[in-house]
């Protein structure tokens, strides 16, 4: 069988992969000088921007999904009238790819500052970072279980090395080991669940899985037995498979009860890696979770929707309560990120409500289901707004970490007087995360989720979210107050090299957060929520 490959469809991840190889070659042949570090950073940044430009070109090409790596109809099974495809570019994948690449621009800028101090192999750093981005851009477009798992591991594996890449850093090595163990366990759990689903449905394609588990076609898998099995008569093993898959992704997004690794890993990793974990890795995890639950298992929503709702409630509650006890800036952002995962996860508990099942088992039908689900749009909108707010906070933390080794909350006391721009930027990002004016972006994000929960008859979850929003106000307000409180005995300022890249990252993240506060309709339109508001 000879497959035709549409290279325009796979152009964004392909461009990132080519630049990753170029970075390794340049690192091998260019002399080891400070200018070389800057050159590799600029090459990486250029690669990310080129990939982002290709995503924009795909989005400008129209709303029709494009696919590649497809099985022709005559080989896809008896009675097939359409292809089964593994890689599909649609509105869902474009939004997530754009989010990942814009966030990657900020992470690369932070990396330039991190690598200026030496002690970290520059070529390997940028190579691993680009490999992570390849997986993060590929994952939202994956439409079969095999590609989904491979892309998710491509996101995860390079992060282990990035976390421990700083030489003679025991804390970084410990964080890398913890992250490795957690990721391996989560992958094993998820693969077990995937194998059970494949055994029932007899296919790895998400569109065919949706048709089987919604009862439109019989389940031909080896675990289904000899009799035709419909969506209402599926054996208990399907429930086990669904639970295991949800548990595997819960590890990836640091959802309760699989959240304990987050704070130690964030604190031990370099700040750019912590920012990557909090936004890019989290976005990839949510993209995979949405694809599996909504695109493949919508027919089993009665099984997974209550589980997702309980996990969301526990995640936002545990994250906020643990964040209140933190004195380290990075650990507070880590637990805040856990709480935000709960808010993003909450609409998925009602993702199947009001969404008609796809009329066929084709890629177009799956894309339509994703784009028509207001719950998916709500989660995506919250994730996009959260990314801008959180990256801005991490960028200021990166700035302060160059002069404060411990990087505790007390180190930020009086920051608005020592560095007004940094203090105001951090204050705005924290106010956004809290959902208070003038940070209207965070307020809009929470309103989107709250309205979706109330409209989906999940009043209990909306109430828990409201309580947690009030709890979150405490630690965000306490940190913001420190910024404008004069320090009683200011320490002498340390001389550090100019950090233009970090300032550029701060400006970019804050500008996007301000834009979302002024024009939230931009997010609504991008995430198919224009009709929702």
Automatic annotation (TrEMBL):
Enzyme Commission number(s) of this protein: 7.1.1.-
Signal peptide: none
Protein name, entry field: NADH-quinone oxidoreductase subunit N
Example GO BP: ATP synthesis coupled electron transport
Compartment(s): Cell membrane; Endomembrane system; Membrane
Membrane topology: Multi-pass membrane protein
Pfam families assigned to the protein according to its UniProt record, in alphabetical order: Proton_antipo_M
Enzyme class: translocase
Transmembrane segments: 6-26, 38-59, 92-110, 122-139, 145-165, 177-201, 237-261, 273-297, 303-323, 332-352, 380-400, 421-445, 457-480, 501-523
Organism field: Nonomuraea zeae
GO molecular function: NADH dehydrogenase (quinone) (non-electrogenic) activity; NADH dehydrogenase (ubiquinone) activity; quinone binding
PANTHER family documented for this protein: NADH DEHYDROGENASE
């Amino acid at each position: 069988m000879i497959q035709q490959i549409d290279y325009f469809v796979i152009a964004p991840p392909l461009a990132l992969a080519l630049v990753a190889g170029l970075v390794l070659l340049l690192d091998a042949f260019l002399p080891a000088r400070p200018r070389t570090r800057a050159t590799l950073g600029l090459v990486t940044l250029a690669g990310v921007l080129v990939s982002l430009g290709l995503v924009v070109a795909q989005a400008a090409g129209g709303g029709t999904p494009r696919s590649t790596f497809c099985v022709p109809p005559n080989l896809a099974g008896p009675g097939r009238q359409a292809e089964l495809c593994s890689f599909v570019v649609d509105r869902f994948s474009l939004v997530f790819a754009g989010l990942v690449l814009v966030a990657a621009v900020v992470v690369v800028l932070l990396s330039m500052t991190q690598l200026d101090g030496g002690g970290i192999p520059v070529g390997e750093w940028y190579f691993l970072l680009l490999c992570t981005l390849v997986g993060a851009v590929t994952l939202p477009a994956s439409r079969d279980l095999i590609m989904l798992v491979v892309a998710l591991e491509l996101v995860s594996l390079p992060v282990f090395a990035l976390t421990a890449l700083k030489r003679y850093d025991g804390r970084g090595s410990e964080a890398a080991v913890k992250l490795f163990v957690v990721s391996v366990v989560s992958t094993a759990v998820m693969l077990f669940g995937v194998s059970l689903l494949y055994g029932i449905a007899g296919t790895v394609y998400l569109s065919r899985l949706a048709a089987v588990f919604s009862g439109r076609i019989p389940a031909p898998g080896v675990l289904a037995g000899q009799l035709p099995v419909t969506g209402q008569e599926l054996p208990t093993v399907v429930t086990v498979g669904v639970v295991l898959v949800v548990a595997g992704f819960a590890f990836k997004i640091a959802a309760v009860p699989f959240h304990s690794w987050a704070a130690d890993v964030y604190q031990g990793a370099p700040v750019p890696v912590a920012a990557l974990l909090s936004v890019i890795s989290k976005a990839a995890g949510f993209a995979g979770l949405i694809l599996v639950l909504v695109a493949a298992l919508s027919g089993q929503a009665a099984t997974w929707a209550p589980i997702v709702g309980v996990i969301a409630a526990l995640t936002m509650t545990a994250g906020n309560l643990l964040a209140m006890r933190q004195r380290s800036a990075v650990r507070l952002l880590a637990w805040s990120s856990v709480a935000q995962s709960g808010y993003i996860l909450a609409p998925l508990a009602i993702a199947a409500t009001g969404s008609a099942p796809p009329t066929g088992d084709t890629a177009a039908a799956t894309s339509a289901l994703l784009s028509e689900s207001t719950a998916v749009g709500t989660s995506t909108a919250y994730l996009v707004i959260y990314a801008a707010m959180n990256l801005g906070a991490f960028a200021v933390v990166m700035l302060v970490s160059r002069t404060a080794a411990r990087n505790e909350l007390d180190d930020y006391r009086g920051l608005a007087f020592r560095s007004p721009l940094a203090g105001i930027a951090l204050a705005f990002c924290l106010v956004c995360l809290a959902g208070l004016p003038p940070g209207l972006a965070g307020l809009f994000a929470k309103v989107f989720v709250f309205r979706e929960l109330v409209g989906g008859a999940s009043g209990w979850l909306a109430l828990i979210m409201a309580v947690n929003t009030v709890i979150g106000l405490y630690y965000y307000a306490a940190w913001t107050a420190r910024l404008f409180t004069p320090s009683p005995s200011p320490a002498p300022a340390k001389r550090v090299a100019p950090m233009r890249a970090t300032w550029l990252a701060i400006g970019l993240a804050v500008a996007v957060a301000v834009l979302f506060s002024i024009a939230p309709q931009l997010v609504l339109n991008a995430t198919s929520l224009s009709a929702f508001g």
